[in-house]
Amino acid sequence: MTATAGADVDADAHRSRLAPNYAPLPVQLAWASGAWARDVRGRAYIDMLAGYSSLNFGHRHPALVAAAHAQLDRLTLSSRAFGHDLLEPFADALARLAAPAVRGDEPLVLPMNTGAEAVETAIKAARKWGYDVRGVAPERATIIVADGNFHGRTTTIVSFSTDDQARDGFGPFTPGFKVVPYADAEALRAAVDETTVAVLLEPVQGEQGVVVPPPDYLPAVRAICDDAGVLLIADEIQSGLGRTGTTFACELWDVQPDLMTLGKALGGGIVPVSAVVGREDVLEVLSPGTHGSTFGGNPLACAVGLAVVELLEGGTMQARARALGAHLHSRLATMASAGLIERSRGVGLWAGIDVDPGHLTGRELCERLLERGVLAKDTHGSTIRLAPPITIDEQDLDLALDRLGQALC
Ligand SMILES: *Cc1c(COP(=O)(O)O)cnc(C)c1O
């Protein structure tokens, strides 16, 4: 409808004032706890998306909410112009959690806010390291990325997206990126040259539909990077922090990246918190004044981030993701043999499901799931992703999968 002067007041009141860059499912959430959410009418839903893995520990995890509440009563923002009493403890805790999974004995932490900012930070660090340390010719640094990647929405990041919708109309693009097929180590090896400073990959491609590479891929990428003396940057923003049954997805293949980007679940579903974690000799190229963020590492973010690290330290979340994940994948395999879905894949408590495109689009399936009290989201085409909170009860997971079975009939 076109708005005209004197148009019907009621109709006007219903016209959204939101820019249309999303097409949300028709539900208005008003409350949530654990794996359950309620809408404004009080209808209950099982959350099988978990904020794209931002809610790995469920909605309003008591330890995370308590940490946030306590911090709200004390200090919320300092800016990095000053220090505050949780900045070093947060960096120490996150470095300790990441140390076994990343190169370098004493990793550094660079806190930011959103995932895209962490990726931008890693790109800047890799380029500067390439010029300052590797001696790459000025303005020539390239970073190799994979087809089907998702690393965020900034102009630089969409410059190397292979999703037309994400790119079209947003040029001119940032040069210095080379795209190779995902899970093809030889193509990657062939793309490396004297300008290469880094390879940037998702160890599991989440937005692409939870695509898990073959077991020899990441080790081969690590070897190629070592041979060429270039950095391996693992984007663990969606795959990290327990989702795959390990703390970080790269641990599934015993591969240590030089840098990793973290985000999503690092903020516990409460505040945006992201970070780049990795080799001291790489991150230390970012000397004072070369990079920053007004909100990065703020006290509230650090309080929540610290509590998130504590939840992961014991390994019980990771074990739970493995156990529930095994159950999830066996139930999906049964659905595939019954012909309800075409195939499923994934690792830990994380699955991509392809349905018959002649039968249903992913969007239609998600609408049917919504009617049955399940929140899920298509990734693209006829693929949906399941990533419930790791804290979900097994009965609730089963209930969601029963409803998925019904929605597919
Ligand atoms: C979500 C995501 C990002 C971007 O994070 P934002 O917080 O939305 O900027 C980057 N990389 C991966 C792998 C992601 O899943």
Strand order in the sheet with the most strands: 4-10-9-8-7-5-6
Main β sheet profile: 7 strands, mixed
Q: How many DSSP helices?
A: 14
Q: What is the CATH C level class of the largest domain, in words?
A: Alpha Beta
Could you tell me the number of beta strands?
15
SSE run:
HEEEHHHEHEHHEHEHEEEHHHEEHEEEH
What does this protein structure show overall?
This protein has 409 residues and is an alpha/beta fold. It has two domains: 29-47 and 317-408, Aspartate Aminotransferase, domain 1 (Alpha-Beta Complex); 64-313, Type I PLP-dependent aspartate aminotransferase-like (Major domain) (Aspartate Aminotransferase, domain 2, 3-Layer(aba) Sandwich). The chain is 35% helix and 16% strand. The chain has helices at residues 9-14, 50-53, 62-72, 87-98, 115-132, 155-159, 164-167, 185-191, 217-228, 280-283, 299-313, 316-337, 362-371, 394-407, and strands spanning 29-33, 36-39, 44-47, 108-112, 142-146, 177-180, 196-201, 231-235, 259-262, 274-278, 343-346, 351-354, 374-375, 377-380, 383-386. The protein is globular and about 60 Å long. It binds pyridoxal-5'-phosphate. The site of pyridoxal-5'-phosphate (PLP) has 15 residues, from α5.
Short account of what is shown:
The two termini are about 35 Å apart. The chain has 14 helices and 15 strands.
Q: Which helices and strands occur, and which strands form pairs?
A:
Blueprint: H1 9-14, E1 29-33, E2 36-39, E3 44-47, H2 50-53, H3 62-72, H4 87-98, E4 108-112, H5 115-132, E5 142-146, H6 155-159, H7 164-167, E6 177-180, H8 185-191, E7 196-201, H9 217-228, E8 231-235, E9 259-262, E10 274-278, H10 280-283, H11 299-313, H12 316-337, E11 343-346, E12 351-354, H13 362-371, E13 374-375, E14 377-380, E15 383-386, H14 394-407
Parallel strand pairs: 3-13, 5-6, 5-7, 7-8, 8-9
Antiparallel strand pairs: 1-2, 2-3, 4-10, 9-10, 11-12, 12-15, 14-15
Helix pairs in contact: 3-11, 4-11, 12-14
